[in-house]
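Fold it.
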Amino acid sequence: MSIDVTLQGARVLRPDGWDSAPLAVCGGVFVDMADGREIDLTGYDVLPGIIDVHGDGFERHMAPRRGALRERDAGMVAVAAELAANGITTAVLAQFWSWEGGLRGPDFAREVFDSVRVMRTSVPIDMRLQLRLETHYLDEMDAAEAVIDEFGVGYVVFNDHLPHARLAEGRKPPRLTGQALKSRRNPEDYFKLLLDLHGRGAEVGPAMDALTHRLAAKGVTMGSHDDHTAADRAEWRARGAHVSEFPETLDAAQAARDAGEFIVLGAPNVVRGASHAGNASAQDLIGAGLCDALASDYHYPSPARAAWRCVELGLLDEVAAWRLVSDGPARLLGLEDRGRLEPGLRADFIVMDQSNRRIVATVAGGQVAWMSGEVAQRFV
């Protein structure tokens, strides 16, 4: 049930910048005026809710101990709580469909998707689905497409994590034994699987051409992951995949920008100041104007922290920095009803303590998703 309130006394981050005008909520949307009671938020900032376009931090709740404990519905409730505590009001859960097995295999993907389907109407956070599809997993492509249809997956991203250079030489990749055991496979059988997948490379292009054509006809948003060159981006662009997630180089990111495509960078990369894998720095790409959305990747607190890090470094002003976690992701996902604090839009907002930028309240669709401390007393 939506709260009907008018927020007074706060700084409010609107599309053109900060102001102190009241912000009214009624019926789950922002309105010009509301009949509900007034709440004094002096000393606090109100900002649009965070829209996270790619995050897999849910894994720790769904499978808190690998091979020993699985938490389905209760785990997804915990996911919603963590998202809310970090100001995320719309979350795209990025789940692999991969030959790697385990938490990245089809069985776990079905568990995640089914849990979201069961729980999404009982929590305020809008949880959506992304399938991260390994391109060489050819024998499971039909099953993947069936899952996309069954669960209404609206966002598909294509990955290729095979160590092709090593496999082309017939050599085992590093950490093969550990990866095999995590997927509950014999290491030698796992190595044979990798060689077989690598050997089918000639089939991948035609299979991706056909699949992306069908997905585009269904209105699915598509992207490629870890573009390394402008040619990589051109290949996926030709297939209708117009999102470049975590481009590894300046050339790949610039190619996406020149084509008017969306660029997603990892918020942890911004917070760290560098890619943990040694790829292009997200800070450098943002400074070059090559970012439309910051994603949590594996760490839900990072989007808010990364936005302010951009301000501290002088890369962006506060409006532009917060746009990378709100309006920018909304546009990427085609969600015209959110991402800004404007009348008629979905009432997704966070309340932040001005003294330390700590998120103290999150409201999603006009429903209280999370509150903590003194600000809760003002509402209650």
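The longest helix spans residues 201-217.
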